[in-house]
Design brief:
The protein has 8 helices and no strands. By secondary structure, it is an all-alpha fold.
Length: about 240
């Protein structure tokens, strides 16, 4: 294997991350994070449908308990479709937030195989929860801010997808770097990845999240790839010791 201090490209980082998918510990981590993420995404989607149903009932003066029968089969279909779309969109935010909660395990699995000499600090569960919550809130706020711009470009067909891809690439690149670096940062040292590396890392994960089946693996692959990129850059810059 090449020297740990050498540069690493985005494709190489993801290729190294993929080599661990057969590890039983990785499989267990994937199973529990995917199940929790799916449940939370579905809950958020259902919650949106309920809120929309209540809003429609209030708007047209319908009794909330009879909202669905009152609006008819067509409205039920529309609300169901909205719920599915909402759950799909929520998956990106929820999956990354859940993975951040398990970030310690991802970093440890990667380090045990590729960087055994490194020793990250242990993060208390409360701090892990706060990091995950902050990341989810940032993602939610950023996507809500981007929504009007995406809607303004809806006539271009591809415009909304580009807006959300760019916004989430910035967000994910930063979140993935920070979830690794916070475990090794000493004396407030600046994170080692440059702007372009963070953006390309985030963009790669956004791309994987858009592909069926691979979107289930994207959070782990992104976190593991980020671990490789951050460690190689930090070692090269002398910010951590091998």
């Amino acid at each position: 294997m090449q020297d740990a201090r050498s540069a690493l490209s985005i494709p190489q980082a993801f290729a190294l991350a993929a080599t661990q998918l057969g590890d039983r510990r990785v499989i267990w981590l994937l199973v529990k994070s995917i199940l929790i993420s799916l449940v939370l995404a579905i809950v958020l989607g259902v919650a949106l449908v309920v809120l929309l149903g209540w809003g429609i009932g209030a708007m047209f003066g319908l009794d909330y308990d009879q909202t669905v029968p009152g609006v008819g089969i067509a409205m039920v279909a529309v609300l169901g479709l909205v719920g599915l779309i909402a759950a799909w969109l929520a998956w990106r935010i929820v999956a990354m937030a859940v993975l951040q909660f398990y970030a310690d395990e991802v970093v440890e699995l990667v380090e045990a195989k590729f960087y055994p000499a490194l020793s990250p600090r242990d993060l208390p569960m409360g701090e892990q929860g706060r990091i995950a919550l902050r990341g989810a809130v940032r993602a939610l706020i950023a996507n809500l801010i981007a929504l009007p711009f995406a809607l303004a470009l809806v006539f271009t067909a591809i415009g909304p997808a580009v807006v959300f891809a760019v916004v989430n690439a910035f967000l994910l690149g930063r979140e993935l770097q920070d979830m690794v670096w916070v475990r090794h940062m000493k004396d407030g040292a600046a994170a080692p990845l440059g702007f372009s590396s963070r953006f390309l890392l985030g963009l790669a994960v956004v791309g994987l999240l858009a592909i069926p089946i691979l979107n289930l693996l994207a959070p782990f692959l992104g976190a593991a790839a980020a671990t490789h990129l951050v460690h190689r850059a930090a070692l090269r810059q002398g910010k951590i010791d091998a």
